[in-house]
Structures are given as C-alpha cells and as structure tokens.
Amino acid sequence: MFFFAFFWAFFTSSLSPVFNIGGVWPPAGIEAISPWGLPLLNTIILLSSGASVTWAHHAIAGGFKKEALLGLVITIIFAVIFTVLQGFEYVNAPFAMSDSVYGSVFFMATGFHGFHVIIGTIFLSVCIFRLYLDH
C-alpha cells in the first residue's frame, strides 16, 4: 500500500494536471528523464536479480549449496549495480525534489524503492553468511 500511494499521486497528477503546474504533464519547465536509457537498464537489472534470487531459492530448496551461494552472490552484484546506477540517476536528474509534484513523487517513490533494495541487499548478505555456515 505504501508504494501504491506514490503511484496514485503520480497517476492523479499526470492524468489531471492542475493549473498551478501549467495544466500539462510533466509540469512546465520540467525535463523528464527518458525511460529508454538508465531506467530501462535498471529495470533489466531488477528483473535479472529476480531470476537469480529465484534460482538461489530453488537451489537452497534442492540442497545445492554451491549453486545457491552463486545465485545469491549474483543477486547482490545486481543489487549493488542497481543502487549505484540509481544514485547516478539522482545526481544527474534535470529536476529536484522541490520542483513540483513531479520531482516530489519521483524522488520519494524511487528513493523508497532504492532503500528497499539496500535493505534487501543486507538481508541477502546475511543469507549468504548463514548458508556458508550451513545454518
């Protein structure tokens, strides 16, 4: 429900832009980030990490420790790459959080998602450690 609220704010603002942001979406003066560059690459990385963590899960369930460790390491590598690219996107964004509802929703939604990825990376690191110790 948490992320749903940000998507709701985004869709409401984009489908019915109000007069104080110029009545257009994105708001007047805001240059949107192209979805075909870094966002597409990050999406591919996230989908790939989903595949590698699923592989690790099935390897754990099947008792294949070496494959499970490899799958978890690959997933963590994807997560670190995603986090670095997200940070690069933030630094180079042509707008700020204070630039109307567009900037606010973008940075809040992607920021909390990035935080989610960082917490997941920490948890997966603990899983690797425990799997390595045969827990």
From TrEMBL:
User: Signal peptide: which range, if any?
Assistant: 1-16
Which InterPro entries did the record assign?
A: Cyt_c/ubiquinol_Oxase_su3, Cyt_c_oxase_su3_dom, Cyt_c_oxidase-like_su3, Cyt_c_oxidase_su3-like_sf, Cyt_c_oxidase_su3_a-hlx
Subcellular location(s): the record lists: Membrane
User: What Gene Ontology molecular-function terms does this entry list?
Assistant: cytochrome-c oxidase activity
Q: What is this protein called?
A: Cytochrome c oxidase subunit 3
Annotated TM spans: 36-56, 68-85, 105-133
Protein family per UniProt: Belongs to the cytochrome c oxidase subunit 3 family.
> What kind of membrane protein is this, topologically?
Multi-pass membrane protein
Entry keyword annotation includes Nucleus: no
Single GO biological process annotation from the record? mitochondrial electron transport, cytochrome c to oxygen
List the source organism: Sirophysalis trinodis
Q: What range(s) does the Heme-copper oxidase subunit III family profile domain occupy? A: 1-135
Q: Which domain of life is it from?
A: Eukaryota
Q: Which Gene Ontology CC terms are recorded? A: membrane; mitochondrion
Function as written in the Swiss-Prot or TrEMBL entry: Component of the cytochrome c oxidase, the last enzyme in the mitochondrial electron transport chain which drives oxidative phosphorylation. The respiratory chain contains 3 multisubunit complexes succinate dehydrogenase (complex II, CII), ubiquinol-cytochrome c oxidoreductase (cytochrome b-c1 complex, complex III, CIII) and cytochrome c oxidase (complex IV, CIV), that cooperate to transfer electrons derived from NADH and succinate to molecular oxygen, creating an electrochemical gradient over the inner membrane that drives transmembrane transport and the ATP synthase.
Q: Which UniProt keywords apply?
A: Membrane, Mitochondrion, Signal, Translocase, Transmembrane, Transmembrane helix
